[in-house]
Write a structure and sequence with these properties.
Strand content: 5-15%
Shape: globular
Distance between the termini: 54 Å
Radius of gyration: 21 Å
Number of strands: 8
Structural class: alpha+beta
Strand order of the largest sheet: 2-1-5
Mean pLDDT: 80
Number of helices: 6
Length: 174
Amino acid sequence: MDTLESELTCPICLELFEDPLLLPCAHSLCFNCAHRILVSHRSSSNESKPVSAFQCPTCRYAIALDPQGLDGLKRNVTLQNIIERFQKASLSGPNSPSETRRARLACPEHAEEKVNMYCVTDEQLICSLCKLVGHHREHQVAALGERFDKLKVRQTGEIQEKSNTNCHYNLNKT
């Protein structure tokens, strides 16, 4: 179920898609997440005119908007139906996604966003908006899971090294 849930999760809010839009690159976004990207673009460029394009957060493809804006993009009805079935099926199980979902940290720069990646350049946790329109736009980023695994391996190695040193010290002391 975890693998299926990850396929049904928005790359911006990291929740199950809600009112998903189908982008021309074939990726999807929640309507509200796409709207937040446009609002963030507008506020970062200090312009009052509507934003005519944004980048897909998954593949960085430039999504051109027609005069209708987000309403001009197609709704991903099939994905929405799959999510509804998934939610019905998981509500009856003891390990429903809502129960097993981890607490997430809020982004310090975008309070309503959750951190979901690691900026390798600045060595800090960031959200998708930081990467898409913030000052981390040109920085190298890594997935949180990937960064966690690297830190875990490093910490395990340091602990083993210290325990070997302590064992060696205790053996020499006797």
